[in-house]
Every structure is written in C-alpha cells, then in structure tokens.
Amino acid sequence: MSASISPVARFIRLSVLTLWLAFWIGQDYARADWRPVTGEPWPALEAPISHSERTLESSTGRTVRAHLALFDSRRYRLAVLDLGPDLASASDWPEHTRAAGLLAAVNGGFFHADGQPLGLVIAGGERLNRFETVKLLSGVLYGDARGIHLERRARFQSSPGIDALVQSGPYLVEQGRAVRGLSTHDVSRRTFIATDWRRHWVLGATRDGLTLAELAEALATPGALAPWPVERALNLDGGTSTGFLFDPGAGQEPIHLRARRPVRNLVGVRAR
After folding, report:
1. C-alpha–C-alpha distance, residues 116 and 161, integer Å
2. Pairing of β 200-206 and β 244-246
3. Tell me: the pLDDT tens digits for 68-119?
4. Are 231 and 186 in contact (CB under 8 A)?
5. pTM of the predicted model, to two decimals?
6. C-alpha to C-alpha distances, 133 to 107, 124, 130, 151, 196, nearest whole angstrom
7. Among 3, 16, 150, 178, which residue has the least CB neighbours within 10 Å?
8. Are 38 and 54 in contact, with CB atoms under 8 Å apart?
C-alpha cells in the first residue's frame, strides 16, 4: 500500500507544477516577438486609402511578408461581394471587384465544399445563410450607414440597416492584446481585418505561413502590421483561400495576391 501524500507535500507539488507551466507559457510568448525589417516608411495617416507591403521577422527566425490595404472608415464603406456558389467561376478577382466598385478586397468568410457560406453573410443588403454560433465564428464584421463595426458574436445586435456582414473567426486581438489560447501549430497563409477602433482600418493577407497565435502577436506588436495601435482584429478564411487585391487607379495594374482556390465571397471597401 502506498503512503498517502500530506496536504503540505501536495501543495508543494502543485506550486512547482504551476511555476513550470508559467515558465513554459512565458517561453512561448517570448518566442512570439516580431520586428519589421522593411525600410519603407508607412503611408501618411491622413491618406484616405493606401497600399503597403511589409516584411516581418520573428525571434524564432520566421519571415512573413504581408500585403496591407489601409483606409479611413470616414471615407470608405465596407462591402461584401458574393461570388455565388459556383466556385469554378469565382476566380477572376479584378473583373469582379472593378464591376462592384471595390478599391481593395480580400477573401471573406468560410464556406463549405459545395460553396455554401458558413455563418451569416449579408452582401449588397441581401441576407445569405443564417446566423450561426459554432465556436470558430467568434466575430462579426459588418457595415451600415454609421460606419464599420467589429464585434464579438455575443455582443452583436442585428438591425435592418446592415448592408454588409460576414461571420468569421477566431478573434485575434481584443483591447490591444493578442487573444490567448490561439493555435500554435497550423502554419498557413492568413487573411485578416484590424482596426484602432477609431477610424483606421486595415485589410491584410500574408504571402507566407504563420500560426494564428503568431498572427495575433504580430498584430498586437506596435508598428508591425499597422502604423497605429491595433485595438481589435479578426481572422478571415485563410490557407489556400488567402488572397488580396488593391486597385491603385490611374490606369495602373491592380496589386494582386492570387488565392490558390476560388472563394465564395470577398470583403472589400468602396468610396462613400
């Protein structure tokens, strides 16, 4: 028969285990540090809409390149462009975005193999699918006449004035801090939207793979993926769906990061 463990010994063992876990968690967060390595200055904060390409390096040696469309929500409205369930015909982004008057766009929400969207989508005021409460869809991005909004699913309140909306997730940054508990394993290209929760927003897509936890840390790092402090950020459908388009106008060719597969919808901006 084994000897029983005294309460004091049990307390000491639990304390040692707690310190050990805290140490390794701290090590994980230390490895998530990011620094920008591109020398180009950020576009002026007063610029209504602009493109920037950034390169970041982590303290573990990972390099990530990202395309960013920075814009002012006082000048531009959120738009969701539904490309329809026939995914085979939804691959020519420049044609679709120009026809819809979008100046910048990224791939939008998640979708099933048959092309049906996962979660609620509102495109051009038309409601597609239904509001869902699966764990993945922790955030709601939407636009109305008042502006652009990014909320936790539990705080979202539907209204008839919403003309653009996607459910997506997970939440990456909240109140200026990287969300805890995000995946540290799956390395994929990523698509995201972030804001300082004043008037500055960024639509972004990475050309290289990183984990969700790494993306959250990069977004929460001052000056890494935005010239202003990110207050909140949401992950959009990434992986092979990751794509980006920015139309500089004046007869110039669009800056286009092609998705590796067709997507169901795009999230973009158009002039007010």
Report:
1. 24
2. unpaired
3. 999 999 999 999 999 998 876 666 888 899 999 999 999 999 999 899 999 9
4. no
5. 0.87
6. 21, 23, 10, 14, 26
7. 3
8. yes
